[in-house]
């Protein structure tokens, strides 16, 4: 029986007029068997897969888990103390169970949906009659998407079912594959992706290219402690790729600088008013309780009124202050009553509801400037802020960490990153002190860009050899103890989110999230659970 294409084409139809699609439908009902016959059809399919890396249209599927992962680190509180927190609380407070995962169920399901879709596309594109050059481009993009999904799954849940073929209902008997096997498939997909994209045009319009494949290879090599490979691929992107560091750090997350010179891959957004293609992060993590009276204009049109989830910790702010890192601090965090960095004239004292905000801070990287707000008739679902998924600065930091472990010049790379934000170079560092500085630079540079939880799980404390997260979280963790003894005027006066954040962390199980119980049940017990859940 023919399988009808479902929502995988939803985004594609935006790029193809209804009349064109109806005319094609004269062949009969659009099915997997008669699709993929033209380059346009293959491109539409690859575009949809790429868009599903963040699922900007459906914020609750992947964007919500993304901010929940941030909340499970030392960088962010849940933040919103005025609404139901049941979606975020299980993971962020380390109370998660297989039956109570909050929004962490969504990431598992969404990524496997995309993997199955990628497998379908790869199988059908391979047999498509289109020219080889176009076939390679769309297949290369699809391979990257599949690799990215598995990279997220293996970091979130550990060993997971691995498949690269189209599955039918009779094939749902897969067990979990070892972490090493999942990573091996990720690497194979990315290498094949880079090869297929070798001759594809490199355009900064959100399309996947070979440099994105090499950059993700650098990241997954780092995560596996394959230091030589991490150095090889990060160096390749730095020295051969068409990218450069933005001269102004704030410009990386600028609504008027989509796909800038530093961006290797961004989730694309649009403010088109008759489509729902905007970013969800500025709403989900925007300041809750803005009021027109707090803006110089006294105009309700300047108010965004976000939902207030994922608020920066004072511990993160202190990390910036300890380095006198003014530029990255103000580009990452806005404290209540301070001017919005870069928007000082129209928002000189950014104020919001402290009754609903745990920390009195919001994420500046997700901020929508007042001028952009005024240009929008519709805001929720229409905010034009692209979300960087991979950028060049990460490659410098990856090369620095790889150099540390292979005897190279790690200081040179972190000093390049520091120079961009007007910080003096570090000199004379070596051994554990140097490694901790590399870790710190990653935190300061990449805060709220989806890497902090993965980093503190994989980074090793140079004194104990144990994951860094174990020294931060748990009853005796430094981050937990800092909060319990904090005198921060915002965090300690709003205790509707408990001050003992991270105290429930258990290193015997919380280095990965549990497999959703429903997946185990649907497999008839073939899929097993992570230890101690």
User: What class would the helix/strand composition place it in?
Assistant: mainly alpha
> What coarse outline follows from CA principal-axis ratios?
globular
What is the radius of gyration computed over CA atoms, rounded to a whole number of angstroms? 23 Å
In what order do the strands lie side by side in the largest sheet?
1-5
InterPro entries: SusD-like_N, SusD_RagB_dom, TPR-like_helical_dom_sf
Family: Belongs to the SusD family.
Organism: Flavobacterium piscisymbiosum
Subcellular location: Cell outer membrane
Write the layout of secondary structure elements.
Blueprint: H1 12-15, H2 18-24, H3 39-51, H4 63-71, E1 76-77, H5 89-92, H6 104-126, H7 132-157, E2 160-161, E3 176-177, H8 179-196, H9 210-223, H10 227-240, E4 263-267, H11 281-284, E5 311-312, H12 314-322, H13 326-332, E6 333-335, E7 361-363, H14 370-374, E8 387-391, H15 392-406, H16 410-420, H17 431-446, H18 452-458, H19 468-472, H20 478-484, H21 517-522
Antiparallel strand pairs: 1-5, 2-3, 4-8, 6-7
Helix pairs in contact: 3-6, 3-7, 6-7, 7-8, 7-9, 8-9, 9-10, 9-15, 10-15, 15-16, 15-17, 16-17
Give an overview in words.
The longest helix is centred in the N-terminal third of the chain and has 26 residues, at 132-157. The protein has helices at 12-15, 18-24, 39-51, 63-71, 89-92, 104-126, 132-157, 179-196, 210-223, 227-240, 281-284, 314-322, 326-332, 370-374, 392-406, 410-420, 431-446, 452-458, 468-472, 478-484, 517-522; strands spanning 76-77, 160-161, 176-177, 263-267, 311-312, 333-335, 361-363, 387-391. It is globular and about 65 Å long. It is mainly α. It has a two-stranded antiparallel ribbon. Strands 2-3 form a two-stranded antiparallel ribbon. Residues 1-27 have low confidence and may be disordered. The chain contains 21 helices and eight strands. This is RagB/SusD family nutrient uptake outer membrane protein. Residues 42-222 form the SusD-like N-terminal domain. Belongs to the SusD family. Pfam families: SusD-like_3, SusD_RagB. Residues 347-533 form the RagB/SusD domain.
């Amino acid at each position: 029986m023919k399988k009808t294409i479902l929502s995988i084409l939803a985004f594609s139809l935006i790029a193809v007029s209804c009349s064109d699609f109806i005319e094609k439908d004269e062949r009969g009902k659009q099915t997997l068997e008669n699709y993929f016959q033209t380059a346009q059809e293959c491109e539409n399919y690859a575009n949809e897969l790429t868009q599903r890396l963040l699922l900007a249209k459906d914020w609750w599927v992947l964007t919500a888990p993304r901010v929940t992962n941030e909340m499970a680190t030392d960088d962010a509180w849940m933040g919103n103390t005025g609404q139901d927190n049941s979606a975020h609380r299980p993971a962020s407070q380390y109370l998660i169970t297989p039956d109570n995962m909050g929004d962490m169920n969504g990431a598992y399901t969404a990524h496997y949906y995309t993997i199955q879709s990628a497998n379908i596309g790869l199988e059908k594109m391979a047999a498509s009659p289109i020219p080889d050059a176009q076939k390679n481009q769309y297949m290369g993009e699809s391979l990257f998407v599949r690799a990215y999904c598995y990279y997220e799954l293996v970091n979130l849940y550990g060993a997971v079912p691995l498949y690269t073929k189209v599955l039918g209902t009779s094939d749902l008997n897969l067990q979990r594959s070892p972490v090493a096997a999942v990573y091996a498939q990720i690497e194979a997909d990315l290498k094949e992706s880079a090869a297929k994209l070798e001759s594809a045009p490199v355009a900064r319009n959100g399309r996947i290219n070979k440099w994105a494949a090499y950059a993700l290879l650098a990241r997954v090599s780092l995560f596996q402690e394959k230091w030589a490979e991490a150095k090889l691929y990060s160096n390749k992107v730095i020295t051969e790729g068409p990218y450069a560091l933005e001269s102004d750090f704030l410009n990386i997350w600028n609504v008027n600088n989509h796909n800038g010179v530093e961006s290797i891959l961004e989730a694309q957004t649009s403010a088109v008013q008759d489509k729902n293609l905007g970013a969800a992060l500025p709403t989900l993590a925007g300041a809750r309780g803005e009021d027109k009276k707090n803006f110089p204009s006294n105009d309700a049109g300047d108010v965004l009124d976000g939902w207030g989830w994922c608020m920066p910790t004072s511990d993160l702010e202190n990390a910036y202050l300890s380095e006198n890192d003014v530029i990255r601090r103000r580009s990452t965090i806005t404290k209540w009553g301070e001017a919005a960095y870069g928007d000082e004239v129209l928002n000189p004292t950014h104020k919001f509801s402290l009754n609903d905000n745990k920390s009195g801070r919001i994420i500046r990287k997700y901020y929508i400037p007042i001028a952009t707000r005024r240009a929008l008739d519709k805001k929720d679902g229409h905010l034009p802020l692209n979300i960087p998924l991979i950028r060049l600065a990460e490659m410098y930091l990856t090369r620095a960490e790889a150099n540390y472990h292979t005897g190279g010049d790690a200081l040179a790379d972190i000093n390049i990153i520091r120079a961009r934000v007007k910080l003096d170079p570090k000199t004379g560092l070596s051994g554990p002190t140097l490694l901790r500085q590399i870790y710190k630079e990653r935190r300061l540079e990449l805060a709220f860009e989806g890497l902090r939880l993965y980093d503190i799980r994989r980074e090793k404390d140079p004194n104990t050899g144990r994951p860094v997260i174990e020294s931060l979280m748990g009853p005796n963790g430094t981050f937990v103890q800092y909060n319990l003894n904090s005198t921060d005027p915002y965090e300690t006066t709003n205790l509707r989110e408990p001050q003992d954040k991270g105290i429930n962390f258990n290193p015997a199980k919380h280095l990965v999230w549990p497999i959703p119980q429903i997946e185990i049940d649907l497999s008839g017990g073939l899929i097993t659970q992570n230890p101690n859940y």
